[in-house]
Design brief:
Helices cover 0% and strands 16% of the residues. It has 50 residues and is mainly β.
Length: 50
Amino acid sequence: PLDKPPFELRARVEKPDIVAGVRIGITEAADLPWRFGLKGSRYLSKPFAT
């Protein structure tokens, strides 16, 4: 369970900066903004356009 050690649930301190962009790696509806991520995250497979 994610609510038991070693995990810990905490209240969010600040609002995260979520960005949306176009889908990648697909051909249908690729222009729809259905790709979401944390702005500036190094864990995205491809950075969002700024």
